[in-house]
Amino acid sequence: MEQIVKTIFPFVVIGVAVFLAFQGVLMIVAYTVLAERKILGWIQGRIGPNRVGPWGLFQPFADLFKFIFKEELAPDESTKVIFYLAPLVALTCALMPIIVYPFGPEIKGSFDFLPYGLGEGITSLPLTIAQMDVGVLYVLAITSVGVYGIALAGWSSNSKYSLMGGLRSSAQLISYELAMGASVIGVVMLAGSLNLSEIINAQINSPFKWFIIPQFIGFIVFMIAAFAETNRVPFDLPEAETELVAGFHTEYSGLKFALFFMAEYVNMFTVSVMCVTLFLGGWYIPGLDLLARTIGMEWLFGAGTIGYAVVSHVGFLTKIFAFLFFYIWVRGTLPRFRFDQLMNFGWKFLLPVSLANVILTVIVVFILNR
Prior knowledge:
The chain is mainly α. It contains 14 helices and 2 strands.
């Protein structure tokens, strides 16, 4: 019995971690939608949802039930298998990067209290589901594949509006993926690693603490490209309501539309996590460990303790929520680009600026390492 428990224990831990991470992200997504409706209401002089539950807090669940009970429609001439598969591809690719993000520091200590000797030899508990030496490449690769869901939805619907939305999304992704990738190269060179945890540690050990200072140009490029990658205003050309009705998801309804809807907001969350991890130190809060030693609370909030991990995780989420608020603020403020403006901006301005930042970073790193 003991041997069986020891064999299945790692798989149980990973399964629970994946479940908690995905459920947490989906809850954040649900209330990001509610926050967006509330904030846009304030920007436009409206109240926003306030009927379902206190202050409208149960509105996301009401929306979910509405999607569940809505009639499922599919065009007669659509390619049915791909039509149904496309939303799953979009949501799956949006969720997959979550497993490599460090959500907090390691919790150090003894775990001998676990039964059957399961804690024997374990001295730390990382708040990361999977440690990858190429975590940055993994995230960029998975987010690139996500456009297949949109492209397949546009093609399989057999609708000219949907097809135009899918083609726009593909062109937009290719144009801005290059700039986003180039903006990350500077951070990778400064950290000397593609591992997201090591990038955070490099920021902790650097004199700047956050890479947004030496990589401010890369940060701006990444942030602009992130808006384009997630099809958000002012780059929401693939679903431009005034031109394409609803773009690639014109023919979708019910739960299939809900999956596309969720995929967009999950992408917003994951891109925000990536930006915080690369440029704002991830979970690291400068001075937290020093403050704990100063006030004599190192036993509770010192590095490696549960208190330190909890406070760092809260700081991590606060940075992410700040980016999500910025997403919403931009939507309520800026108009949509024309498609030719979008392409010109990506190829003629953003890409050259990102490449110039790479060259400048190479020169600086070469001089410092001489």
